[in-house]
Write the structure tokens for this entry.
Amino acid sequence: MADRILKSISTRGLKNAVRGSEYKKEALISYGLLIAGYIVLQLGAVSGLIGRNLQGQFVPICVYISLAISLNLVVGISGELSLGHAGFMAVGCFSGVLVARVVGLHLGFEPAVVLIAMFFGAVMAALAGFVIGIPILGLRGDYLAIVTLAFGEIIVNLMNVIYFGFDGNGHLKFAFNHPIEGIEDNDRIIAGAIGATGTKTMATFTMGLLLCLFTVFVVLNLKNSKQGRAIMSIRDNRIAGESIGLSVRKYKLMAFVTSAALAGMAGALYGLNFSTVAPLKFNFNTSVLILVFVVLGGVGNIWGGIIAAAILTVLPEAFRQFADYRMLTYAVVLILVMIATYNPTIKSRVSAIWAKLKPVKNKDKDKDKPKKAKKAGKEGA
Amino acid sequence: MKLLTNLISGLSLGSVYAIIALGYTMVYGISKMLNFAHGDVIMIGGYMSFVMSVYLGMNAWLALLIAMFVCTCLGILIERLAYRPLRGTGSLAVLITAIGVSYFLQNVALLIWGANPKMFTSLFEGVQPIRLAGGSLTVTAESLFTIAANIIVMIVLTLFVNKTKAGKAMRAVSEDNGAAQLMGINVNQSISLTFAIGSGLAAVAGVLMCSAYPVLTPTTGAMPGIKAFTAAVFGGIGSIPGAMIGGLILGIIEIFARAYVSTELADAIVFACLIIVLLVKPTGLLGKKISEKV
Amino acid sequence: MKKKFTRFAAVAMAGVMAFALASCGGGHPFKKDTLNLGNAGPLTGGAAIYGNAVDRGGQLAVNEINAANPDGVQLAWKAEDDEADPEKSVNAYNTLMDKGLNIFIGTTTSGAGVAVAEKADEDRVFTLTPSASQVAVTEGHDNVFQLCFNDPNQGVAAAQYIMANMKDKKVGIISQQNDYSQGIKEKFVSEFKGEIVAQEVFAKDDEKDFTAQLNAMKDAGADLVFVPIYYTPAANILTQANKMGYAPTFFGVDGMDGILTAENFDASLAEGVMLLTPFVASANEEATQKFVKAYVDAYGEEPNQFAADAYDCVYAVYNAFNQTGLEATADTAEICEAMIKVFTGGFTASGVTGAEMKWNATGQVDKTPKACVIENGVYVQK
């Protein structure tokens, strides 16, 4: 009964109830995209059609896809703006690297080490998410956004003063706010602002795919569970949600912590893909980058996020031929794409074209606003 | 004595944050968007003033006026080209566009002026700092003027928003965009005007910031932009006196955290203070309480 | 559903557009019959100044060599942007590999250097980095060499110099929370036997206010402040110390070099600043003067140490390559093994950052830093 009320509160939930196939469709497209992408890229790499530049990005692409999906859980499904997602990635990254280094001493089978590291990264990031989430989730809108930004910066700052390493006897040593004394450079694992260093790179594309599939699995299942509908109904109408006895804090926390855990997993895989990662990597800019993926892919849209993350990760690389104008071009493209995807005039125009191409499916959608043909033509060209 | 020294440093830094935050809060108040490109408009203001005064040998104050003019135009242009097409599509889309604009401005500056830092000539070049208590306390002309500028800007803005027709129109748009439109207020004009004022202020902030901290690079505005945004939230975003108070307090906290706790953890402490304030007062120090209608 | 398709269509369209645009970009300097030298460094972002200097220094040397030996091995130079980020740096390196890289003139920055060194080792690409100074860059990689001093080397050299020449000074340290600065600081602290009265840090490249750090130095009575940082924040520190009326001896390392090239910089602020640097633009040596003149002619600004390092890298690699007797068309891995033999077999290189530079098997360079003091706006060697 309660579930039914939830469905009726949440507009999207209602849609789901009416058109149950929506979930299957979204899952099918998401999994399909990931697996098809994996196969195509692997074939391209094996056959030599895909250059080293793109091959080198396989794992980062997977990591960013996973981050985009997990952030979507907070931004799209829970409806809160988070500007500190990279902080959870950082927690996962450094704890994952640490565990991989320690476990790697005893375990030779690399995929198992990676899995353990990812698991541990997820646990630590979830813990961080829990600790952060409890006090702040009562805040609203932009105030919550600024607090997540603040936590992201705090995490980076703390990572700058944390030191881990092995002493001469192979014991793990920890120091806060000062380097560990008398330790060989080789035996450092995490060295404050220098970051994780001397990491054995173990991440593989297959691991990346598994990470993405797992992330999609968790997010889609949560979205379509009773809890997910509760989360979405609180997003759509907090007061109505409260009035039927939903604990706003509990459900927001659920989304936040799950999202943090998934980001931690992705962070661990990221850390194991490079022999060194510095805390500075996880600053505000990276948080924003992930947010860009989410917004461009469509808030709440899982497979849109997959495509946006993949394209936007590769894009700056594709612009290398512009030499000095590379990042400028990237900025211009970002602005234009945002306008092209969100501007109501252009949007209605594109969908009108779409409707012509697919007249049967979209026959009830002819309520487009008046068009400024000239403007749309200019910007859409 | 040490306390006083740090307090003065904190006020100097805080006054720079405050004047940036004033621009931030203006724009936020009316358009409800987090304009992350604001810090980069400040940087452009700094460069314009540098070009005018150093390359063209202009008087520093005249250079400031020209920088204000350029930034005002830039602000209007950015709003018209990048933000207006997305009006009414939710704050997220505009936020991302603002970030795109921020990248854009940084990279334009990099292409035009290069990465090598430029040393800004202070507005008060040659004015000796006031030394008190036998030289152990130093008050610079830059920080005195920045604080004065803050107070003036705050008063003028408050009067403008409350007393003039254009200002009232702005408040109306800020309160309820749709209703304002129904009352015959030209919403586009009001928003353009806000961006013009905010960006003109950004030029002032850029020149004052670079006068106090003279190293000018294409990324000069990024970090102060975020800090000033924090300051604006701290004081209650949308509130003009709040922005100023938030900026000053943030500057003092930052310097005190470094001086009395640890330079290693200063950033963490500053942001932790922000979080605590928001937990106690969820809309900032002077922010309006938002009542919820069912 | 329509909304999503619309968005997807727009994103895809923009993507296709962008790729179409990108694919008609300019030509690439790497050719089959040239010896292709590549570098990955920050050409955009906060550290762009260092990457651009390396790009220009390297390009200048390549142009000189090609013009002087039209019949010899022709070199090609390309620097790719990595924003000083290990992830992007690996991408930049892979791009160079796609284009036919023969010899890698390293990454410009350290963190990126560590990440790429591992890949270069796997691929067997000979690497001589101009300025990635962390130990971990060369450690465990027999094909990676450094032309700059490494961080401990600088920290130790600075500590020894201060102990030998200014041992009565009370030392304070202001360092930055990044790999470069912390690497040097840690070694300095463990090597230095004198009195360190205060240690402070700052976080970001564009940090504004240093009064708290400077006050701490002043209160602790430090009369020598060791600043193992880059010169952009150092310029702010010098200005603020001056305003406070605090005038200790500031002692920098190679990152401090370039402070006089900052546009409109009031050189009187840097009066008395000491630094250990391999390169002095105002030195009287003929090679240095020739390099500085050529650089100023080409780019309209004085070269800093990063440019000089890159310039020397190209010459060292060119001379060593001629000793291998290989053709430019040789296999990259083959070049790598031959170059390693030359570099570890008593090869010496002389250039603007040092005479008779030699390398040991771990890839570290043996040269002595010059201690300089800034007097009247020029470096004076001590």
